[in-house]
Specification:
about 250 residues, alpha+beta, seven-stranded antiparallel β-sheet, three-stranded antiparallel β-sheet, 12 strands, globular
């Protein structure tokens, strides 16, 4: 049985995120929250059809395609930094942690879209509303998980934290799949929620210091299918790297 997400009202989004460590907005409210229309978000979807394969999967799978780029967001200004590798410590990613993984960058044409800029600015304001005005170090991951091999794993590392302050997850599209249930748990308690993001451009945002999350595997329905997401991680103390660890 599919469980509908516990949606927040736009005016309560920051309050809910601060209080319960996660919040979810439906697509129409996401667009208004960003100060744009849904068509602008939907215009980004063709970029998912041009993602290169993820060559770093250690479970032997071939179900993930992705791009990755890094940005700094501060006081309404977005700066894309020189392309750099993605790194996580093994404490946060037992499967792929401890390795500098270089992915192809987000396409320039995607990153210069006005709605992309609005997204980073508005969500940066959300982060600062909770943790004070910061210089936010943002890693953007454009993912496609497909079922060509029969099953796709959105989070092959299992339930995890990302070692950042906040995580924003947009469901960009899902076609001909079942599964992909989102599960969130407070990291100091057994309390948790599970639900499925079904509508394109639904947004889920998590306080990564307080919340563990995962998505269950997807399987095909009526032929090959896929699940597209945009994941933005927000960290105030620099990009994660072997030389920069959380204090």
């Amino acid at each position: 049985m599919l469980i509908t997400p516990p949606y927040s009202k736009p005016e309560n989004f920051v309050r809910d995120l601060a209080g319960q460590a996660y919040a979810v907005l439906p697509p129409a409210d996401v667009a208004s929250f960003l100060g744009d229309d849904l068509a602008a978000l939907q215009a980004l979807q063709p970029f998912w059809s041009r993602l290169p394969a993820d060559r770093w999967l250690k479970d032997g799978g071939h179900y993930r395609r992705r791009r990755h780029s890094c940005f700094i967001v501060q006081q309404g200004y977005v700066e894309q930094v020189p392309h750099r590798a993605h790194w996580q410590p093994v404490e946060y990613n037992a499967l792929h942690g401890g390795v500098l993984r270089m992915f192809d960058p987000v396409e320039r044409e995607m990153a210069i879209q006005p709605v992309w800029q609005k997204m980073l600015v508005r969500l940066g304001e959300v982060c600062s509303a909770i943790k004070g005005e910061q210089r936010w170090f943002v890693e953007a991951h454009v993912f496609r998980i497909d079922t060509t091999g029969g099953i796709g794993r959105p989070t092959p590392e299992g339930a995890h934290r990302d070692g950042v302050d906040f995580v924003s997850i947009f469901l960009a599209d899902r076609q001909h799949v079942q599964g992909g249930e989102s599960r969130v748990f407070l990291n100091n308690a057994s309390e948790g929620r599970r639900f499925t993001l079904l509508e394109n451009w639904t947004l889920m945002m998590l306080d990564d210091e307080r919340m563990i999350h995962e998505s269950t595997p997807i399987q095909p329905v009526n032929g090959n299918g896929f699940r597209d997401t945009l994941v933005l991680t927000w960290r105030k103390n620099g990009f994660l790297s072997p030389d920069v660890l959380r204090e």
